[in-house]
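Trying the structure run again after the queue cleared.
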Amino acid sequence: MILKFVQDHSPTSSHCRGTAVPTETQNIPAASILLVEDNEPIRVMAVRILEEAGYRVRQAANAREGASMIDVEDPDIVITDIFMPEGDGFEMMRELRRRDRQIPVIVMSGGGQGTDLNFLGLADRLGAAVVLAKPFRRQQLLDAVEQVLAPRSD
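Done. Tokens:
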């Protein structure tokens, strides 16, 4: 039996609250994920969600740090924010392409919403495997990861 953390991610709250709830799990994912996010509360929350789902997660606070970890960590998936200091998510995607790494990328962002700028749409056109608008719910993040991993398990 594994204790799984159930979180309250209401869009009006910037805090995570949760309780441990036992769940039966027979197939724990073993995929490794590199999470690149400059916003520490979001990064901590996403790492917690992913680790509690059984994923191995490494984290970086910006694209430059993330790029330096790619060859060492050899992740199965990269999840990156778009807007960060010291390199953005688009630079992260370009760096993966430059290194000829076929690592699927999930791009997340809360920027540009409600404007004429569609940064998630641009990320999609540039080859992101999945785009995820912030704020997102726990299950949306897990669904995005599962969607990217699905072809791997076929």
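The domain at 30-153 is CATH 3.40.50.2300 (Rossmann fold). Worth checking whether this holds up in the mutant runs.
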